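Read as chain and fold; for instance:
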Amino acid sequence: MTITGSGVDDIGLFTVDGTYSVEPCRIGLTKKYQASIGNRSENLGHQVTIQLAWNAQNDQFEGKWYVQTSKYHGEDKFELKLNENQDQPRSYDRV
């Protein structure tokens, strides 16, 4: 399945593209920042690679993010949780 989205964080505006695989329940994302918007010292128009796997015990996706630019290289933990208060996407069958 294809994943797309957008948002804003303390670095700047970004888009997200990726895939979800039902088996083995993994997500691969690429988060791309729009250059020169937001925190100009950190937002280089770079991209972040995010690799996640479902952890049923914690009821969330867990993994790591990775960044490599000319000014910064890093990685750290990443968790993706479903907000139970958020409306769920629905699909409708037409008759």
Remarks:
- The two ends are 25 Å apart (CA to CA).
- The mean pLDDT is 87.
- Residues 2-80 form one domain.
